[in-house]
Design brief:
By secondary structure, this protein is α+β, with helices and mostly antiparallel strands. The chain has one domain: outer membrane lipoprotein receptor (LolB), chain A (Clam), CATH 2.50.20. 23% of the residues lie in helices and 47% in strands. It is built from 4 helices and 14 strands. The strands form 2 sheets. The protein has a 7-stranded antiparallel sheet with strand order 6-5-4-3-2-1-14, with helices on one face. The N and C termini lie far apart (62 Å).
Length: 254
Amino acid sequence: MKYLPILLLSVLLFNCKNENSKGEVKNLTANEIVNKSIAVSGGDAFGSSIIDFKFRDKFYKAERNYGKFKFERRFKDSLNEINDVIDNKGFKRHIDDRWFVVSDGKEQSYTASVNSVHYFSVLPYGLNDKAVNKKLVGEERIKTKEYYKIEVTFDQEGGGEDFEDVFIYWINKGTYKPDYLAYSYNEDDGKGMRFREAYNERYVNDLRFVDYNNYKSEDQSIQLTALGKAFNDNNLKLLSKIELENVAVDLINH
């Protein structure tokens, strides 16, 4: 019997250690959560890949090769075939295979438009870029699942034309996949907020892609962080679907 207190103490210490271990999991930082999310979505393989897809009536291609990149958008207007290209050197527009000079204002607009589609296509990859700031702002239950809420903002330097935009990502606590996101925007033609629900998840050559249901709120006073609750309460309006078609992936040096 003299060993019983020691045995009980050992059991208590073991249980406390397990509880602390569980506590450490619950106390993940925003960076750690995002790192796990990127890893389960394909990880560093995005950074050495060639990705092609169709979005609405346009064709997109992204080449990423260890810091070097080239983003393209190809489409036809009523007369010509247009190819917009962004790379480490800047923006270029080709019309029928001839380089075409555009004004500064249009160049910024075209660059933002091309970047936006490529940015959303590979999320959460890109959330570790130097200009990205991440903060864990809470946890929330949507439908039947529990989520980490990660706020993402951008530095002005390196954050692009839309550096003032704010994003919220709802990252599943079980799978670490971003099932929902919301963002605010402020553009020349207006400002507002959107909430997106991921669906049609598929892996192409081990890289994760999703489509989105795109929602907005009729309540102009609602806060960005409250859009998850509004969605849960069926208070958002479905605007459109964001669907990537014919996704193809080639991995470089793999």
